[in-house]
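Entry 12.
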Amino acid sequence: MFERKMKSKLLGCLEKVRYGRLALTLPDGITHVFEGPEPGPQAEMIVNDWRAVIATAAKGDIGLTEAYRDGWCDSPDLAAFLAFGLRNEDTVEPYLYGNPLQSLVIRALYLFDANTRRGSKRNIQAHYDLGNDFYKLWLDETMTYSSALYAPEDAQAADPLISAQHRKYDRIIDGLGARSGRVLEIGCGWGGFAERALGRGDFAPKGLTLSHEQAAFAKARLGQGAEIALQDYRDERGRYDHVVSIEMFEAVGERYWPTYFGKLREVLSDKGHAMIQTITVGDNYFDRYRQGGDMIRSFVFPGGMLPSPTAFEAQAQRSGLRVEDAHAFGADYATTLRDWLRRFESRLSEVRALGFDEGFIRVWRFYLAACIAAFDAGRTNVYQYRLSHA
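Predicted 3D structure (tokens):
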């Protein structure tokens, strides 16, 4: 009886889809096809266990991630399936966001991930200290874990992703408006930007990270060319001609946004520029996003929080900074993510050899696919902001 009601509710929702096509196979082996009148993603989902539907109805994409991790459901193209859900949000809303009471519980749990100094260190290490060997398997040889910036000529390059990552770095360097000076990088990763900057001008870079693995790699990579500090950005006391921060803002946490911008203003010279690259969530979705939960904050980036473009710019301005330029290139992030996912899938035997189990692999596959879907659907974007003192 319960399964019959659950099935009836699910199929009833899907009969109203407007965009794309979904072939849904349920545990009874019957495949149901739903096609909307408008073009959209072509998706397929196999539900192996009714617990997948129960978990998704209760906890939205967090429950769906758990179900996929445990093998209760599967899809030959997760990104297409997730994009189908986002495109038909109005129709499948109960399964996207789950039970409101569960959302409150999840938000309460996020309080334990607050980005205090101790919390930031714990949160960053939880993600980036999975090991350099893990990230080497599927990032390009620049070890860049942020969106690339593509151009048609990349198709002729030996590795289009490397070419596009260099272009991203070059646009940031050009945005600084100089070819020399002291540059602080808040969240330096494995040192990709610093290496590119040293090759493009007479810069003196200092990079900050909270990851032991990243710091060790960057120091070995850059030698005496740059200073790499295992340090919280809030503890920086120097003053710099330029400041760069590439997809670190997402790890700051909304409570600490004023602190971040205040520190940026404090360390940036009077006539200097800051180039900040950050992922954003759409203005029209921001309130719902900040009041709920999602699989990325629950499984991948504890303590994370995306700004909306309006929220980012307003906070910068309140802190005494001026937004001189905002360049959006979300479609390029979808391309970057597809390349990462392809590389990840091609190295699974080596991922397993590092000690990661099937549950971990499936969560990471889901994570990369979910990000692809969000950028494809326009739910998220990525910006390079050029800031200066107001």
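Annotation: The chain has 17 helices and eleven strands. The two ends are 65 Å apart (CA to CA).
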